Structure formats: structure tokens, C-alpha cells
Amino acid sequence: MAAAPVRRAHGACRSGACSGIVAVSPASHDRFAMTHTPLSAAAAQPALIDPHDRAVPLFTVEQLRAAEVAAQAALPAHALMARAGAAAAHFLRERLAHAPSPASSKPVWLAAGPGNNGGDALVVATELHRAGVAVEVCMPVEVKPDDARWALAQARAAGVPIAGSAPASFDAYGWLVDGMFGIGLARGLEGVFAELAERLCARAQSHGHVLALDVPSGLDSDTGNVVADGPAVRATHTVTFIAAKPGLYTGVGRDYAGSVAVAPIGIDTEAAPGAVRLNAPALFAAAMPARDFATHKGTFGTLAVVGGDTGMCGAPILAARAALLTGAGKVHVGFLGSDAPPYDAPHPELMLHAAARLALGAMDAVAAGCGMGSSASARQLVDAILRLRALVLLDADALNLVARDGALAAHVAQSAAARGTPCVLTPHPLEAARLHGCDTAAVQRDRLAAARALAARYAAVVVLKGSGTVIAAPDGRVAINPTGNAGLATGGTGDVLGGMIGALLAQRLPAYEAALAGTYLHGLAADTLCAQGDGPAGLTAGELAPMVRKLVNRLFYAPGYDA
């Protein structure tokens, strides 16, 4: 009997990464009805979500405040703080239970700030103390909000040791907990809190364990930047409350947050309209093409990679090889330069041409810009590409040409209307700044806003590269990509990404889904290579595409995989 054709699943992938979000049932209100044991009641089965491979919503401060207000109206007093502290205490107990001795017997040290983040820390300390874990709290300034005052009263009643200053050394302690400041911090850390942040950073960088409650103190949870360029806590782990935050996944936020777990604390955020999402296969798996028996090379599309001026022919070769290994049926390369190779020896499947002789009208998709240069010929070629019915990706030099040519810039948006589908633009921050007419610092100050503005201005899907790549569609959808690492900080990796997304466009994925899939798989390939010891130092762009091929097949087309 013939084997079944290898197909994709509808909206899911073999690894389980495409299954979407684990449902978290809101905690029942009567959990807090017994006022004489509020903390122990709050600790009952706290739910924690690992956002890895899940398309979790990412909430801004404004969205979080609205969710808190709505929840508090239906809950007993102090319930959210009790739940948050219980969830973080549960996280710590789990890690202490599996820690090697004597690390598990060292006291947990907690820094409590003057606001509700300090109240969260006090609840954590009380929960741990009642569970028999040695704790010490440092509260330089007494907490002020009502919820935090309640938490302080609970801690004092339980006998939690609370001091006004930090010890001279943290050597005697195991986990250190940052509960100084949470979301919405408007000014940089100062005084004793700045000093504590620097000491916690030093501990994390010396391989100690530092847990941040909600967000690392001093980090802007909306943008992933350090507030007012002051110090911020560099945590090894973050337990974030209600929902994950954009700033934990983009900019320097990824470095400061460490490993993130989400404690929903009973608030359902899944149906939030307009929320940014963490990129995951659940957002693009359904768009991956089936690989039936009755297919041919034309089924999976024809891509042209266009670029490669004199001295830069390697860039389109990298992109084209990546396109081939990402599943495009046929890949052509059009070179502008005079030193183009006649064929690609490692991949003779690639069809190489002078750009002027490339039949662009026969292509399903065109990826233009890698190594293209800035000549008049390059400008004319970009203009011609924008007139095609084919799906278009612009990268590198093509973006620079658009940035300094108003007619080309207008043509990008006009071509989307004529074609009925947007272009994909893949700028790094400097290219994005040129497209915006601003400096790079302005782009990095708010990466989500910058990507959204570019998407609106050019009616395009924008892939703003960098740590926590932002993918923005002109219809308002936005995602932040969680995969990738410092191994990608080397020449040619952007060319590989352009070729991958181009291949997915040729396979007829919608522009936004192609950008999501390409970005996710590109970063995942780097993560997988690093896990094997092939990075981050010394990882090369050419190593990515073979790993991408393996990942695509494992996730979507593995033998025996049932649609």
C-alpha cells in the first residue's frame, strides 16, 4: 500500500509548538474569601505559562492597567497582589526543590520597593517563609499603596525578617529577587535603588540567580529600553504578571529579562483586541503549503533574487541558496555586477543571469536589494520590480534607494494597491531610520512604533530586524519574534532572511505570514546551531539555510505527520 503524502497540519505542527496558548482558567473568587488565611489561599495551584513557542499576547502598560481595573472590580481586596506573589513564590519553590545542595538551603533575599512591586515582593517573602524557606527582605523605603501596606502587615505578622538596608555581600544568599519597581516607571533609578540594581546586575553576570517580579526594575516594559538611560536590573529570570510585555522581548529587554514565565493570575487576556503577539508557529503554520504527491516544481513557486553589483555577488548567492533550502520550486539570481559567477558550484540548481536578461515577469516573487548597490541601473531595476504583479521583498540597498527617492517611496505604497498585496520590507535599524527620515536612536527608542509607522507609510509588511525583530502589517497586526541570538550578528545573515521570506512568498504564503515564518525559522536555526555548539561565536550566514531546511521538515513535513 502506498505511503500517505507528506502534508502539513491545519494550523499545527508536529512539535506541538503550533498548538496556540494553553488555556488558563480564571481563579475562582472564593479563593480569597477566607480573610484569616489570604496568602495560603492565594497560593493554591498558581498557574504559570512558559511563553516559549506560544503566540501569547504582549500587553502595554495601558492595556495592563485596564485589565487590572476590570479584574479588581470583580475581586476581593488585595486578590491580584496575593495571586501575583503566590505565583512567583511557587516559581521559586519549584527551583529550590530541584537545586543542588547546598544552594537549596541558602536564604532567598528580596528587595522591596516603595510601590506595589514591593508589595509583590513582600507576598513572595511571606509565602516562602510560611513554606519553611529562609528569607530576608530589604525595604529601604516603606511601601505606600494600600495593597502593599496589606502585604507588609501580612509579612510582619508572619515574622518575615525585614531590614532597611542590604547586606555588604550576597555570598550567603541563593536567589535574589528584584521587587523594586514594576511597569510604568517614569524616571530612572536613583539612590539606593540604583545601587541595588547595579549589585543585582553584578550577581546575574557572575552566574547567580536573579528573579525580577513583573519586569526588571528600570526597564520600560513597552519599549524594551532602560528608563532614562539609568541603571536597570539584569535578571536571569522574570515572572511577569497578567500578560507578557513587549519590552521583555525586544531591544535590550531580552538581555535584561532573562528567561520569562507568565503568571496570568486569573485574568484572561487571550481575546484582547489589537494586542501585539509573540511570534510562534501558531500564527503561520496554516499557511504552509501541503507537500502532496501530485505536485511539481511550479507548485512551490519561482523566485528571483536580484542584486549583486560588482564585488558584492556573494549576497544574492546566500539569499538564493536560503530560498532553495526553504522550499521554493525554482530560484533565479539576477546580478547587476560584471563579476557574476556563471553558476553556483555547491548549488547548480540555481539559475544565474545578468539582471538585465532576467525574465522578471515570469516570477511568482522577487527579492531585491542584497548587494545591489546604488547605481542608476539599480534604481531603474527597483522601479521595474515594483511594477510587477509578482510578490515583492525589498532589502538592503533597495531600501536605501527607496529612502532617498521620493518617487520610488510613493511607488512602494502604490504598487501594493495595484498588486492587491503589500510588499515586504526588511530593514535593520539604520535602514529603517533612513526610510523614516530620522536617526537610528529614534527607531530604537520605540521599535514597535517605528515598525508600525513604516508599515502605514509604505502600505507594507515591515520586518524591523534586531534583538526582538518586530513584524508589522499595514492592517495593524504586529508580532515580536522571540527566536535568534548574537550568532546572527555577522555578515550575510540578513541576506539569508530575505531569501527565506522570498521563498515563502513564492510558495504563496500571504506577506505577513511569510514574514512571520521566515523570521521565526531564521532565528530558530541560529538557536539550534548554538545549542549544538556552533555559535554564537563564529556562526556564519551560510550555516543557517541547511538548518532551516531541517526545521521546516521537522515542524511541518515529518514522515508520518498527519494533516
From TrEMBL:
SUPFAM superfamilies associated with the record? Ribokinase-like (SSF53613), YjeF N-terminal domain-like (SSF64153)
Reactions it catalyzes: (6R)-NADHX = (6S)-NADHX; (6R)-NADPHX = (6S)-NADPHX; (6S)-NADHX + ADP = AMP + phosphate + NADH + H(+); (6S)-NADPHX + ADP = AMP + phosphate + NADPH + H(+)
Domain called YjeF N-terminal: residue spans:
64-273
Residue numbers binding (6S)-NADPHX: 116-120, 182-188, 214, 315, 371, 428, 495
Pfam families referenced in this protein's UniProt entry, alphabetically: Carb_kinase, YjeF_N
YjeF C-terminal domain boundaries: 280-555
Please share the entry's free-text remark on the cofactor: Binds 1 potassium ion per subunit.
Spell out the molecular function terms from Gene Ontology. Answer: ADP-dependent NAD(P)H-hydrate dehydratase activity; ATP binding; kinase activity; metal ion binding; NAD(P)HX epimerase activity
Q: What is one GO biological process annotated to this record?
A: nicotinamide nucleotide metabolic process
Which keywords, in A-to-Z order, does the entry hold? Answer: ATP-binding, Isomerase, Kinase, Lyase, Metal-binding, Multifunctional enzyme, NAD, NADP, Nucleotide-binding, Potassium, Transferase
Name the residues that bind K(+): N117, D178, S217
| Cofactor field | Mg(2+); K(+)
UniProt-listed Enzyme Commission number(s)? 4.2.1.136, 5.1.99.6
Residues where AMP binds: K465, G466, S467, G468, T469, G494
Q: What does this protein do?
A: Catalyzes the epimerization of the S- and R-forms of NAD(P)HX, a damaged form of NAD(P)H that is a result of enzymatic or heat-dependent hydration. This is a prerequisite for the S-specific NAD(P)H-hydrate dehydratase to allow the repair of both epimers of NAD(P)HX.
Could you describe the subunit structure of this protein?
Homotetramer.
Give the family per the record.
Answer: Belongs to the NnrE/AIBP family. In the N-terminal section; belongs to the NnrE/AIBP family.
The identity of this protein, by name, is Bifunctional NAD(P)H-hydrate repair enzyme
Q: Which organism is it from?
A: Paraburkholderia lycopersici
The gene for this chain is nnrE
